[in-house]
Design goal:
Elements: H1 16-25, H2 32-85, E1 89-90, E2 93-95, E3 104-106, E4 111-118, E5 121-126, E6 129-135, E7 141-150, E8 155-164, E9 167-177
Antiparallel strand pairs: 1-3, 2-7, 3-4, 4-5, 5-6, 7-8, 8-9
Length: about 180
Amino acid sequence: MKRLPPHNNPPAHLCAFDRIRLRLRDTRGFMLGEQLLSVIFIGLLCVVVSAGIGAAMSAYANITMKTRADTMLTQAVELVSDELTYALDAEDGVQEDDGSELYFTSATLRSEGVLQTNEAGVWLNADSGQYLLAPTQNGLAPRLASLAYDENTGLWTFHITISSGDTVLAETTMTVKRIGS
C-alpha cells in the first residue's frame, strides 16, 4: 500500500483515481474547506427540517379543527333533528336570521318553545325553561341559520353551520319528518 508523503500533495506520477484513493485513505484530518462545507450542509438541513415541522404542525392544526367542526356538526344535527322530529305540535312558517321565531311544542320540555342561536350555541327556549342543545366548544360555534316547517307535509328543514370566527368550517341542510304528523 502506498503512503502519502508528509505534505498533502500526492505524487504527480499517480493517475487521478490513485490520487483520490490516497486522499481518501489519508487519516490526518479534514481540510478547513471540508469542515466548512459540512457545517453549512448541517445548517441547511436544520433549516429545512424546522420549516417542514412548522408546515406539518400547521396542517395538523387545520385538520384537527376541521375534524372537530365535523363532529360538532354531526352532534348538533342529531340533537336538533331529534327535538324537531318529536315535536308535539308545530306552527307553519319560516325562522330566519331576521328575528322571526318559529314556535313548536317541545317533547323534551313539554311546553311551547323556540330554537335560538347566541354566542353560547343553539338553545331550546321554552316557557318551562332553557336547554342548551349544541354548545360552543374549542372556539367552534354552532349556529342555526334557518328553520322552516311545512304543516301540509309535516317536514322540518333546517340549516346548521359550524364556524370559527367568521370562517364557516362545516355546514349542512337537513330535512326531517315530524312523527305523528
